[in-house]
Amino acid sequence: MTLSAYLAECTGDDKFKEKALLTANCIKSHIIDAETNLVKDCIINGLTCETESSTLSCHLTGMFIRGLAILATITDDTTWTTLLLEVAKASMQYPDWHDNGILIAGIEGEASENNDQKCLRGCHSCAVDLCHG
User: 34 or 133, which is more confident?
Assistant: First the structure.
């Protein structure tokens, strides 16, 4: 979804925007955990459209936040802005990813180390910039 949103933003081609919207709607309908508003790390069963995992992914949540920020910008649709704010807030409040209101996912390890948690921190920064820029 994020790649399609990027491509739609860069090229102005509606086919990329359509794909980003389809994917965002799929994630919204089937992959967002209803209790936490966070993205699950899962595979969708193609026959039933049900997810096969309840594991939450800070990496996928971060990428979804980034994609939503772009999608909200290129569509001017407040639905995506609202969802962006809900998911970003949920990820900042999820107990395993924060401490006293500070996002701690991605602090561990060397600065040059690439890990999934660092993706969440970077995507938060980019989403905040897009929402306020």
Answer: 34
